[in-house]
Amino acid sequence: MASFAKLPFIFFVAFSLHTCYKLPNPPPAKEERLDLTENFFPVRYKMKAKILFWVVAMVEALSIIIDALAPYTGNLLYLTPTSIIGAMMIMAGAYIRNECFTAMGPMFTVEVSIQKNHKLIKHGPYSVVRHPSYTGQFVATLGAFMWYFSQGSYLRETTTMAGRILGVALLPMFISSFFILGSRINKEDEALKEKFGVEWENWALDVPYRLIPLIY
């Protein structure tokens, strides 16, 4: 029988991923954006696709409830150590991202840009690594793979065509995150160094790690 214990996790995961993929501010002016080719499809459209997280959450929750009322349906949705760790990673990633939204305020946009009154943010999560929003996204994305595609998850256990389509729809969102990170990190460092000069160089000495403390 499906586990009711999974229900709160389902909605915490959906809310956390919604936070990771939300658009905290309008796009910057075109002249403020850096020339950067994004992978797969524009990031702003990718962020708007977060509705898929809620669709999967509702379908999985409904499947658990139906299984409890009619066990003959054969659903096998339950928590595992892997899915719990994945959920915790997603929530941790969302927390980091939200702290970045707060620290940068109106300067945080999903487009890479140097805005008219741009300031170099060095407090909060930016005192730990230089690109903490990508750290949060990286952690949450790894967690999402563990949550959505491990044993006992809806996308792993479903035999329906609709469920498989949802799985195929989510994969590009997660995979593209890894491809985007590398090009964005380099481009942002270059642009910030050019804009702020010695101030950026001093910050880079104080905060030498780009993504993961003590590693990279």
TrEMBL record:
Entry superkingdom: Eukaryota
GO biological process, one term: methylation
Localisation per UniProt entry: Endoplasmic reticulum membrane; Membrane
Transmembrane segment boundaries: 51-69, 76-96, 134-150, 162-181
Keyword terms, alphabetized: Endoplasmic reticulum, Membrane, Methyltransferase, S-adenosyl-L-methionine, Transferase, Transmembrane, Transmembrane helix
E.C. designation(s): 2.1.1.100
Keyword Cell inner membrane assigned: no
Family membership noted in the UniProt record: Belongs to the class VI-like SAM-binding methyltransferase superfamily. Isoprenylcysteine carboxyl methyltransferase family.
GO cellular component, one term: endoplasmic reticulum membrane
Coiled-coil residues: none
GO molecular function: protein C-terminal S-isoprenylcysteine carboxyl O-methyltransferase activity
Chief location of this protein within or outside the cell: endoplasmic reticulum
Membrane topology recorded in Swiss-Prot or TrEMBL: Multi-pass membrane protein
Taxonomic placement: Eukaryota, Fungi, Dikarya, Basidiomycota, Agaricomycotina
Protein name: Protein-S-isoprenylcysteine O-methyltransferase
Recorded catalytic activity of this chain's protein: [protein]-C-terminal S-[(2E,6E)-farnesyl]-L-cysteine + S-adenosyl-L-methionine = [protein]-C-terminal S-[(2E,6E)-farnesyl]-L-cysteine methyl ester + S-adenosyl-L-homocysteine
